[in-house]
Amino acid sequence: MATHSNKPARRILLTGKTGQIGHELLPFLDAFGDVRAPDSTELDLARPDALRTYAMDWRPQLIVNAAAYTAVDRAEEERDRAMAVNGTAPSVLAACAAELGAALVHYSTDYVFDGAKHGFYKESDEPNPMNVYGITKATGDAAIQKAGIPHLIFRTSWVYGLRGHNFLLTLQRLAREQDEVRVVNDQIGSPTWSRLVAQTTANVLDQTLNERQPEDMSGIEKASGIYNLTCTGSTSWYGFAQAILESLPEDERPRLKPIPTSEYPTPAPRPANSVLAVEKLRAQFGILLPDWQGALTFCLNNQTASDPIA
After folding, report:
1. % of the chain surpassing 90 pLDDT
2. Farthest-apart Cα atoms in the chain, separation
3. How far apart are CA 285 and CA 51, in angstroms?
4. How far is 238 from 71, CA to CA, in rounded Å?
């Protein structure tokens, strides 16, 4: 990615700066303009009027929506809030972008699919979510697509990182607390490091934004659409857990027991297969993320004692 010696006079609105992807995005976006990134105490995405007022006051040329309601199981009980954040808020941001002539970058999920397909899910496959979280995310995606604005929707999966709540940090905690950990081995996906999602976003923006004309969104307009953005390769949650535990000293590893989904019931059903095809991202932007195992190694090498473990 090119470096910008002089920051463009481009106003950027970033939502979700404390989340896994948003936290990683913030330093990258700073190279592209003046970033305003309210946290949840400054801006509640479940309040559409407040969201619209905030966006129209700032009048950004680029909106990056990294905020989401991601508590998959809790969403089954908190459907209204999940829909407000995942469905309504993207629609509001898309409407603001339309009024302002702005572009919108948004993040979607593999959980918009039911997992019944054999092989990779392509961007053109019809969503058929099997839980409330997936339904609300698919609603937001559709609203953006219908808005007629320059947009990039990055659909990712099994996101993890060194902060927040995710499988990597949960497993590391369980490894300290338990002698045996049971992990589902019949759900398949592509673990994806949040930093790679942020880096890829910056790479795409570097290719599509006009450095000399901050208001020019024609590059994003030409490339508008959904792009699957995951690491390559696939594994089960059990395989992911094995790879994580291999980074620990042998005497600190708990016993790992593979179990079927039927032995680990959850309020929200999960797709058995959520592996996404990534050819479109490579064809359009020349970007191919590393395999999930290599990315995990890079991530773990970045982990220090000072990093939060939740």
Report:
1. 90
2. 59
3. 31
4. 21
Does residue 124 fall inside a structural domain? yes
pLDDT of residue 302: 86
Q: What percentage of the chain's residues is helix, strand, coil (to nearest 5)?
A: 40, 15, 40
Rounded Cα distance between 105 and 232, Å, is 22
Within its chain, how far is the Cα of 5 from the centroid?
Answer: 29
Structural domain harbouring 208: 11-161+192-234+275-290
Instruction: State the CATH number of the domain containing residue 20.
Output: 3.40.50.720
The one-letter amino acid code at 233 reads G
Residue 5 resides in a domain: no
Q: What is the pTM of this model?
A: 0.94
Count of domains observed in the chain: 1
Give me the mean pLDDT over the 250-257 stretch: 93
pLDDT of 43 > 50? The answer is yes
130 in any annotated domain: yes
Q: Does a structural domain hold residue 147?
A: yes
Nearest to 190 by CA among 160, 153, 225: 160
What value, to the nearest 5°, has the Cα angle with vertex 291 and ends 136 and 30?
Answer: 65
Q: Please tell me the distance from the alpha carbon of residue 68 to that of residue 85, in angstroms, as a whole number.
A: 6
Tell whether the model's pLDDT for residue 7 goes beyond 90.
Answer: no
Distances (CA, A) of 79 to 46, 69, 143: 12, 10, 18
Burial 107-144 (b: 16+ CB within 10 A, else e): bbbbbbbbbebeebbebeeebebbbbbbbbbbbbbebb
Positions marked active-site: 133
**Residue 137, token pair as written in the block:** 């995310």
Query: Which is it for the CA torsion 98, 104, 107, 112, positive or negative?
Result: positive
- Identify the pLDDT of residue 304: 53
Q: Model confidence at 303, in pLDDT bands (50, 70, 90)?
A: confident
- Which of the four pLDDT bands, split at 50, 70 and 90, describes residue 308? very low
